[in-house]
Specification:
Blueprint lengths: L5 H5 L2 E5 L6 H14 L3 E4 L4 H8 L5 E6 L8 H14 L3 E5 L2 H5 L3 H17 L3 E5 L7 H13 L4 E3 L11 H11 L4 E3 L7 H10 L4 E3 L2 H5 L3
Parallel strand pairs: 1-2, 1-8, 2-3, 3-4, 4-5, 5-6, 6-7
Helix pairs in contact: 2-3, 4-6, 7-8
Length: 222
């Protein structure tokens, strides 16, 4: 089994800076850490995209942002507009929340169209789209179905959790995601990744990114 270096783990991390009470100073501090550690991206709230883009310019660290976070319940035209605004502000990747209630209602056409509305805008600007399922609300069979719908809508990644809902990523959920769409989409566990062993375990399973809020703790193996 592959052994990962500190730099390799860092290069897979989307560092989450998403708590509602985070200030401009918090964004600046986290951006400096992201540059220092050479993470994949810093994932911020929509209002912070423009600032993050300025702080990370030329560093190689991408700007990612959440969209319709954390409930996924915005109307589809609102999600489309949010994507357009994030792109104007300088985002490189978008982590959108699936409409969980419509999915659980069995309205799969709505879910696909909702995701596609963001994908269409994003892909026109060469911006990647990750779809957050909020897997803690779903059975493993529903996780697989949500992956299939995300693929049908043209998204680039499937992602487990917002970190603000029930549960977190688990190896079992990731296994389902990888078996369902791992040959045609990328997979991102998020939620509950708070130490080195958990992060490396997911990478060894075959994921492509890690959603982490405690990046320094993970990388320093604390």
């Amino acid at each position: 089994m592959k052994q990962y270096t500190r730099a390799e783990v860092a290069a897979a991390i989307d560092h989450a800076v998403l708590k509602p009470d985070m200030t401009v100073a918090d964004i600046e501090k986290n951006a400096a850490m992201c540059v220092r550690e050479k993470v994949a991206s810093m994932c911020v709230r929509p209002c912070d995209v423009e600032l993050a883009a300025q702080l990370l310019k030329g560093s190689g660290v991408k700007v990612s942002c959440v969209l319709s976070f954390p409930h996924g319940a915005d109307a589809t035209p609102v999600k489309s507009f949010q994507a357009k605004q994030a792109i104007l502000d300088g985002v490189n990747e978008i982590d959108m929340v699936m409409n969980i209630g419509r999915f659980l209602s069995g309205d799969y056409k709505y879910v696909v169209n909702d995701i596609y509305a963001v994908v269409e805008v994003a892909h026109d600007a060469n911006v990647l789209v990750k779809v957050i399922q909020e897997s803690g609300f779903l059975t493993l069979e529903q996780v697989a179905k949500a992956c299939e719908l995300s693929y049908e809508a043209g998204a680039d990644f499937v992602k487990t959790s917002t970190g603000f809902g029930p549960g977190s990523a688990t190896p079992e959920i990731i296994d389902v995601m990888l078996r369902t769409v791992g040959d045609k989409m990328k997979v991102k566990p998020s939620g509950g990744i708070r130490n080195w062993d958990t992060a490396v375990g997911y990478l060894q399973q075959g994921v492509h990114r890690l959603g982490v809020g405690s990046t320094e703790t993970v990388l320093n193996k604390l």
